[in-house]
């Protein structure tokens, strides 16, 4: 009797197994979709999870915030892969395959940090692909004692941002200084060799510039005014002791003639226009490159040593006063041997500076957002929309912030000037200003380009702001 009962139970188990297998086979046949294998790959930016399936299934994606999870529901898919996968990653923790009611298969991805995702399918072979895109990553590198570089990828309501931040302790034995492309106004150069030639630890792009390398804005180097703004704009002042300040500044220059009359200097080291007096010094080029429609006066220590019609050689220890039209008429009384007095000023405090780098607009003043875009008459090429940006900020504790924000890319949409001002304020800047941006925005640290220029390569620029040791600066 017992033996017969055992035989019946064994037969029932066998029949049940056959029925289950048959039902499962029917399900497979009905859906035609089996999950055979899961593969994954990891980069610094993304974790990719690939579900190899026999046919492309329909799926739904949901997200959970507490706990942080991404769930892909795969109804009608039968799992033949492992039930759990663990990742050695800062963002993705593990993947669990769970079968719920009515045989619904769910892939539950547990996350450690905030993220973005993409889910899509591919054919031949059939795959469901999940890309976990890492966001809000902060990687801090000690470049040197007192100097750190931070790569910060963050998510905003408008899209992803990738910022590059140099934080410099002003007491750590370093100095900031501007450098010219190729060591002269004329011509352009990429940032990497400019940083290298300056023996600098790091550098970013600086002022606005023209296609010929002419600096658009104020530039003063080693106590000498190299370029001048057309109207008051924001600049960074660097004192001989390394003290920094940011404010608006205006250039004024004039030439006092032997009879006491004065003639205003319209600009320094740029192409001469109608009725203008332009001062050229050794930082410009070997010669003025001017046309034959003016008169040029070569002066060494205020002494007129030569008078020429055009394209005058610029003495290393002097200047050329290049005049046209009304300005030329005012200087027409000068002759070789005359003494003139050249006076240039940026204002009492600014005249004490060793270096000045102008750009603008101002972003932050005394800890508050302060955009001087309209006052400084910036157009849409600077102020319009989101773009790659470069900025410098000064903190109350003496630290200096130099920031480049990538833009015009899938992984970084760039910032508007207002967003940049808010970001500099978030970083702790008491005062901050905008530098040239767009395709010029670039940061080099220890000879390596750390950001992603929007041109896809280095753009040649007119000047740069570099970090050197105090010994090199002196």
Automatic annotation (TrEMBL):
InterPro entries attached to this UniProt entry? AMIN_dom, NAGPA
Give the residue spans that cross the bilayer. Answer: none
Chain ranges of the Phosphodiester glycosidase domain: 297-467
- Domain (AMIN) spans 38-117
State what protein this is by name: AMIN domain-containing protein
């Amino acid at each position: 009797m017992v033996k017969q009962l055992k035989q019946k139970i064994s037969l029932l188990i066998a029949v049940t197994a056959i029925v289950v297998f048959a039902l499962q086979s029917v399900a497979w046949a009905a859906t035609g979709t089996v999950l055979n294998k899961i593969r994954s790959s990891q980069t610094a930016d993304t974790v990719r999870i690939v579900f190899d399936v026999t046919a492309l299934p329909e799926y739904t994606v949901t997200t959970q915030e507490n706990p942080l999870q991404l769930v892909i529901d795969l109804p009608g898919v039968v799992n033949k892969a492992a039930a759990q996968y663990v990742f050695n990653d800062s963002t993705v923790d593990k993947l669990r395959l769970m079968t719920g009611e009515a045989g619904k298969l769910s892939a539950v991805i547990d996350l450690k940090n905030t993220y973005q995702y993409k889910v899509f399918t591919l054919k031949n072979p059939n795959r469901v692909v999940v890309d976990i895109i890492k966001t809000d990553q902060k990687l801090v590198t000690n470049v040197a004692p007192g100097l750190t570089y931070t790569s910060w990828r963050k998510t905003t309501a408008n899209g992803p941002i990738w910022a590059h931040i140099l934080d410099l302790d002003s007491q750590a034995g370093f100095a900031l200084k501007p450098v010219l492309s190729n060591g002269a106004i004329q011509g352009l150069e990429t940032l990497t060799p400019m940083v290298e030639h300056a023996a600098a630890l790091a550098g970013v792009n600086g002022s606005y510039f023209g296609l010929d390398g002419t600096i658009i804005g104020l530039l003063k180097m080693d106590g000498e005014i190299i370029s001048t703004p057309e109207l008051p704009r924001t600049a960074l002042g660097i004192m001989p002791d390394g003290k920094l300040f940011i404010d608006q500044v205006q250039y004024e220059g004039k030439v006092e003639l032997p009879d006491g009359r004065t003639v205003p200097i319209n600009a320094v080291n740029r192409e001469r226009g109608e009725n203008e007096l332009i001062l050229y010094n050794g930082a410009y080029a070997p010669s003025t490159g001017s046309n034959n429609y003016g008169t040029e006066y070569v002066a060494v220590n205020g002494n007129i040593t030569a008078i020429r019609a055009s394209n005058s050689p610029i003495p290393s220890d002097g200047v050329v006063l290049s005049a046209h039209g009304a300005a030329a008429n005012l200087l027409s009384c000068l002759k070789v041997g005359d003494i003139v007095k050249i006076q240039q000023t940026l204002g009492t405090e600014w005249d004490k500076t060793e270096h000045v780098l102008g750009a603008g607009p101002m972003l932050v003043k005394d800890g508050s957002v302060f955009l001087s875009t309209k006052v400084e008459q910036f157009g849409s090429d600077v102020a319009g929309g989101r773009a790659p940006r470069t900025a410098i900020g000064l903190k109350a504790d003496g630290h200096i912030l130099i920031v480049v924000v990538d833009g015009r890319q899938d992984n970084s949409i760039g910032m508007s000037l207002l967003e940049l001002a808010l970001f500099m304020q978030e970083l702790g800047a008491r005062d901050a200003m905008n530098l040239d941006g767009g395709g010029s925005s670039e940061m080099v640290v220890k000879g390596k380009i750390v950001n992603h220029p929007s041109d896809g390569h280095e753009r040649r620029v007119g000047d740069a702001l570099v970090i050197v040791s105090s010994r090199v600066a002196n």
